[in-house]
Design brief:
It is built from 17 helices and 40 strands. It is of the alpha+beta class. The strands form five sheets. It has a 13-stranded antiparallel beta sheet, with no helix packed on it. It has a twelve-stranded antiparallel β-barrel with strand order 9-10-11-12-13-14-15-16-17-18-19-20. It starts with a helix and ends in a 32-residue tail after the last helix.
Length: 986
């Protein structure tokens, strides 16, 4: 009876009822800040609503989808289950589509100085304040009855569910705050997190896991509830609201609480698992891995030492379901080799781990992993491991083969498939991924538990190790007093973890991990020039195109080539825009155009070109651009504001008035003086920059070789000078000179053996022969055969080890995710000094390459086939993931017709690389990227020519996702946010 009464009350208090609001209704054109200041200068109630009738349609559609889902679900059930859904259906049917649009900050003084967040009342658009301040948090029961709990600060969402007797059997809780923001929080032992704190007027929806149809509707239901504003207050007289309503029999409907009280003492909010790296760098305990993984984009470096092993690990998380990385292991009681007794033995290895199953109520998280693949295989292992969380405890259990299963404490289960799984072939130490040995030989169980202690930074780890250490690599058995390892992980800062423990019952372990999620890295641009002040109207006295060009260059780092008005459209040609964060620079450029263009200009078109090749164009309607900055737009209007991207369509010179030319070098961000206002004739006349013929710059240079027999790390510091002489827009001479200032090459004596022409293994001689080198000096010409076909021809000293001539052809349709290219080269080996002399070795090399932007999670694929520098022929595959902020993590491998024995250790060329734009790391905008490329060994097989100019990179702006990259969202609420945005990340 009480539940039905609550339903009626919720329907009787629609959001659109402004009763109790003493302020006048907003008039058309009135700002929210002005309307609020008529009441008070204090921030408004978070339940303040911005109501837009045009937004009712998508809200009605969502409600209808929910009603259809519930009707179908009710029809498939009987008895109490059906009654629950019928009552929920009745309650939901009574909730209106309000047209509510989210607001951000509701402080009127803040809104006054931030017009882009200060909405304007329209013909039917209005603002409504709640009639009374909310005091309760409302839990929506599965049958639609409302349980009111008085709000208390600092309470966890689960406390309100417990007060309403609604926490039992629930995995997830959804919350809609009065301001329209929604979130999902885990509330079961296996997924419990702190989540967001409910505020007065919040709605909470948490169906039991057994009601899977209601769980499936939860995202839609909570977003619809967010459109209702603050949850209604409790009715003053429950008996009156329930009068005349027949109470169902107890066997028809379970009892759901309609009011609750929080316990007097607040429980400590739950904490998420504090996962950390093990000795091997992977997420795990000490020696053993777990099925847990870091968020996608995490990158970490770690060091651990437990005699006789010291490990340096670098691990990446390219996807939430994949962990990969590489490692160097030092074995302190074994020499590197008979000729290299100055350092201990070093082993290189590559690891990968895949998540097979996500943890749920009854199922554990499950992962499959491989250690030391593609290396010498000294520590090669395969394993399955499962994890189940119970509050602050996380239990793991797995089975391992190879190094991890050396104790053989159980029979290999794969022996059921055949006797060949009884023995494990020995590694051939060539670096092949030895698939024939996987899951063969002895197997062992391993596992453990970690406990996040009451002291937040400290986690205790206890594990059972499946290795007995009697079959260690290099005939190096180790004593083991106990299979139980115990350790602690202390999180010093969010990105630094210290670890210590006792392993094998007698050896002390120490380690540390440094890392973070680079895919979320961003830095406020405090050192950038301030953006132009936004004024909705056009300037009364335009400064002239010369000043416009200077401001755009200062704001973007681009080079402005030409500015030309044609009728009411202003065309802008730029080059040097081949950066990662294109959109932020484009916005700055349009801001300058609006601030400097006369009023008759109605649209802006930006033409992008590189070395004279027209590549891309964008059009902006000036009024639309102004409107998006002068006020927040509700979702239906924001969807109408589009940036038109299209293939370049150059404006004919004959259609433009005579050009006003600027002498070379006079229009720069640093040298342009303050311009006098332009006359009307000057504002209509095109302007062109005279081409710059010479450009140069200096930068530091760093080079390193890791893992060699002479020294673990060989490093070089120096300076490099880059210069470019432009013969024409499409032809230029470029060069680089390096000066080696400091290094530790004095001990560098090792040259790797090779059964092939020494096209890369002479790297020591190229690095040490001369302190002044010329890595690159070449003449390049690029051109366009058709709209989608590009070519380049080049010749000179192409890279540090080879000189020659070559050509490239690329087919790349505008907006296509696929491109195809061919490069052919005739090259000759350079002298070791890297000056101008050449050696006798010469070869023809080139490849046909297919480039594919898959459109899935930022994955890019390149497949190349052809002839390499050593004359071998084969195929290269490169797969990378590019995150939204420009972070790129990738791996490559090349297999040619050279046998593993002829190639040497490593068997085939392979490596891992990483790059990130400096825009994400520095307080000033930059076009540069930093990164590294790691390959376990340098060999001659599969070696490609290092070409300085790539048509695919030069034309990347034609990619459909070229403008997708930029700073990650800051997560701050903004006026106009779409409450019904199902693509928003949870």
């Amino acid at each position: 009876m009480l539940a039905l009464g609550w339903v009626g009350y919720a329907v009787a208090q629609p959001l659109t009822d402004p009763s109790g609001d003493a302020s006048p209704a907003p008039v058309e054109g009135e700002r929210l800040s002005q309307w609020l200041l008529q009441r008070s200068t204090a921030p408004a109630d978070p339940g303040l609503a911005w109501l837009v009738p045009q937004e009712k349609l998508p809200q009605q559609y969502l409600r209808n989808v929910l009603l259809i889902h519930l009707e179908r679900s009710a029809a498939q059930r009987s008895g109490a289950d059906r009654a629950i859904r019928v009552r929920l259906l009745s309650w939901l049917h009574g909730l209106p589509a309000t047209g509510r649009v989210a607001l951000g900050n509701v402080d009127p003084r803040w809104l006054e100085v931030n017009p882009g967040q200060d909405p304007i009342a329209g013909d039917r658009t209005r603002f409504v304040l709640p009639g009374a301040a909310a005091r309760d948090v409302v839990v929506v029961q599965p049958d639609g009855s409302l349980c009111h709990v008085p709000h208390e600060g600092g309470r966890w969402i689960g406390d309100y569910l417990r007060a309403c007797r609604a926490l039992e059997g629930v995995d997830w809780a959804w919350i809609a705050q009065p301001d329209g923001r929604t979130a999902r929080t885990g509330v079961a032992l296996w997924n419990r997190t702190e989540g967001v704190e409910p505020v007065p007027g919040a709605w909470i929806w948490a169906p039991p896991r057994a009601m899977d149809d209601l769980v499936a509707a939860s995202e839609g239901l909570i977003r619809f509830l967010a459109t209702q504003g603050a949850a209604p207050p409790a009715p003053p007289d429950l008996a009156a609201t329930a009068a005349g309503i027949r109470e169902p029999r107890p066997d028809q409907l379970p009892l759901f609480a309609t009011n609750g009280m929080l316990p007097l003492v607040a429980a400590k909010p739950p904490r998420p698992l504090d996962i950390s790296a093990n000795d091997w760098g992977e997420i795990g305990l000490l020696q053993t891995p777990t099925a847990r993984m870091s968020p996608a984009g995490e990158i970490r470096a770690s060091y651990s030492s437990v005699w006789p092993y010291s490990r340096v690990n670098v691990m990446f998380q390219p996807f939430e379901w994949m962990e990969a990385g590489f490692r160097y292991t030092s074995i302190s009681n074994r020499d590197y080799g008979p000729q290299f007794t100055n350092q201990s033995f070093k082993d290189k290895s590559i690891d990968v781990k895949f998540k097979l199953l996500r943890e749920s109520t009854y199922w554990p998280e499950l992962a499959l992993g491989f250690r030391d693949i593609g290396g010498t295989g000294l520590f090669s292992s395969e394993y399955f491991v499962a994890n189940k969380r119970l509050g602050d405890f996380d239990l793991s259990l797995g089975i391992g083969w190879g190094y991890m299963g050396a104790s053989g404490n159980i029979s290999n289960p794969f022996r059921l498939l055949g006797s060949r799984f009884a023995t494990r072939p020995t590694s051939d130490s060539t670096g092949n991924a030895n698939f024939s040995s996987y899951f063969r030989g002895p197997a062992a169980l391993f596992g453990g538990v970690q406990w996040r202690t009451p002291w937040d930074p400290l986690t205790l780890k206890i594990e059972f190790d499946g290795n007995n250490y009697q079959n260690e690599p290099l005939a190096n058995p180790l004593p083991r007093r106990s299979p139980i390892n115990v350790g602690l992980a202390y999180r010093l800062t969010p990105g630094v973890t210290l670890s210590a423990g006792v392993e094998r019952g007698e050896k002390f372990m120490v380690g540390f991990t440094v890392g973070g999620n680079l895919s979320t890295a961003q830095m406020p641009k405090l050192l950038d020039p301030p953006q132009p002040n936004f004024i909705p109207g056009a300037p009364s006295t335009p400064p002239g195109w010369r000043d416009t060009a200077a401001q755009i260059e200062m704001q973007t780092g681009w080079r402005v080539l030409r500015i030309a008005p044609k009728d009411d459209v202003l065309h802008l040609w730029v080059t040097g825009a081949n950066t990662v964060y294109r959109t932020t620079r484009t916005e700055r450029a349009v801001a300058v155009l609006h601030a400097t263009a006369p009023a008759e200009i109605r649209s802006f078109v930006i033409h992008y070109e590189e070395h004279g090749l027209p590549l891309h164009a964008q059009a902006f309607v000036r009024d639309e651009w102004v409107r998006t900055r002068a006020q927040p737009l509700p979702p239906h209007l924001a969807r109408d504001v589009t940036r038109s991207d299209y293939a370049p369509d150059d404006v004919a010179e004959a259609d433009l008035p005579p050009v006003t030319a600027a002498p070379p070098g006079t229009v720069t961000a640093s040298s342009a003086p303050a311009a006098a206002p332009a006359s009307a004739d000057e504002a209509r006349a095109p302007w062109r920059r005279q081409p710059d013929t010479f450009d140069f710059g200096f930068s530091p240079n760093f080079n390193q070789i890791i893992g060699g027999p002479n020294n673990f790390a060989l490093v070089e510091l120096g300076m490099k000078a880059n210069a470019q002489y432009n013969i024409s827009r499409q032809t230029w001479l470029q060069g680089q000179v390096n000066l080696r200032l400091a290094d530790n090459y004095g001990s560098f004596t090792y040259d790797a053996p090779s059964g092939l022409p020494r096209v890369r293994t002479d790297q020591r001689l190229y690095l040490t022969t001369s302190r002044v080198t010329i890595p690159n000096l070449q003449l390049t010409h690029v051109g366009q055969l058709t709209e989608n076909q590009f070519y380049s021809v080049y010749g000179g000293y192409l890279e540090p080890m080879f000189a020659g001539v070559g050509a490239e052809w690329l087919y790349r349709p505008w907006g296509s995710s696929v491109a195809f290219g061919i490069d052919v080269n005739h090259v000759r080996q350079r002298e070791y000094s890297q000056h101008f002399a050449l050696r006798d070795y010469r070869v023809n090399t080139g490849h046909a390459s297919l480039y594919w932007n898959t459109g899935w999670n930022g994955v890019l694929v390149r497949v190349s086939a052809g002839q390499y520098l050593a004359g071998d022929r084969g195929v290269s595959v490169d797969v990378a993931r590019r995150f939204d902020n420009g972070l790129t993590v990738g791996a490559y491998a090349t297999k040619t017709n050279v046998s593993s024995a002829q190639f040497g250790e490593g068997s085939f060329d392979k490596g891992i690389y990483l790059s990130i734009p400096l825009d994400a790391l520095l307080p000033r905008s930059s076009r540069s990227l930093i990164g590294f490329n790691w390959s376990p060994l340098t060999r001659d097989g599969g070696a490609r020519l290092g070409r300085a100019v790539s048509l695919y990179d030069m034309t990347y702006i034609r990619d459909p996702e070229a403008f997708r990259f930029g700073p990650p969202p800051d997560g701050k609420p903004r006026a106009g946010d779409n409450i019904l945005d199902f693509d928003a990340k949870r």
